[in-house]
Amino acid sequence: MAFSLAAAAQTYVYTEASDLTLVGKLMPGETTNPYHRVDTLRYKGFTPTENFQVRMTSGMACVFRTDSKSLRIKTEYGQLSFPTNTNGFSARGYDLYIRKDGEWLFAAAGVASDKKLDQPFTLISNMDGSMHECLLYFPLYSEEYSIRIGVEEGSTIEAIENPFRHRVAIWGSSYTHGSSTSRSGMSYPAQFSRNTGIQLLSLGCSGRCLLQDYFCDVLCDVKADAFIFDSFSNPKADMIRERLVPFIDRMIAAHPGVPMIFQQTIYREKRNFNVAEEEKEQAKMDMAASIFKEIKSTKEGREKYKDVYFIVPDAVSGNRNATVDGVHPDNVGYSYWARSIEKPVLRILSKYGIR
Q1: Kind of pairing, strands 61-66 and 198-204?
Q2: pTM score > 0.85 for this model?
């Protein structure tokens, strides 16, 4: 008997990811494209690079359940990026986790080849056909017009409730964006959310977190229970001195009584034997620390800035090899970072009933 490849081919039924449950969306319902983080027609002032970055899906994911034995992904991309220190799985691909025994367990990662980005690819196959709860992270460094998830014909795919609690916005540099991760679910905000169950809404923008007024315009409008900042990694010391307090004052006015947690910039291994880098990096760290000490040095300051906090993350944790390029951590370094801020952040949030 002749074997028919056409008859054996599996048929897939596709569902738009935005028709399921989106996770980590900074401004839900406020962007025409559901995969954009900021509406660039409404908010102005961005440079061309920043305009592209806020349209990327970094930090976003969707959750659903399915009994399909395999999953395929078909993406219609907008603008694309090919960063040298972040591979294709992370920059343009997908990272799948499945809940097992109450924990999110890595299941698969994948991306179509650069020459066939418009073609569907199989993300995972040969599952057992039972119902699984899935968490699918979107690409970190690309814009998408459509993300379609394919399941085998006759199987089920349906939205589930957001498994993460609260809405905590996080704005930051390439670190928060996820630069140098090997998979999109390995950014430290994503790891923090999986570790704690607290939903982080990421607005990481590589190299462009400079305490700008026009980013503050966005953050003032974000509906969040708390804010976390990685805002001292990009600006030099003099810029931090000039911009930080006015930035904080605007945020307090827009979000009175809401906790705002500022992170010190991490130690960059690049400074180990580079005298100029050592001087520049230490100046930034010293400036940030001194300003927080200064603004809380009086009774009036402690009252005005009572909801503003300063914490110190650690992406090294004794391992001097957890870096990709001397600036950005690798997956292990970001795991250290996520764990290092877990206790201080949760302790602060708990004071506001955010648990």
Answers
A1: unpaired
A2: yes
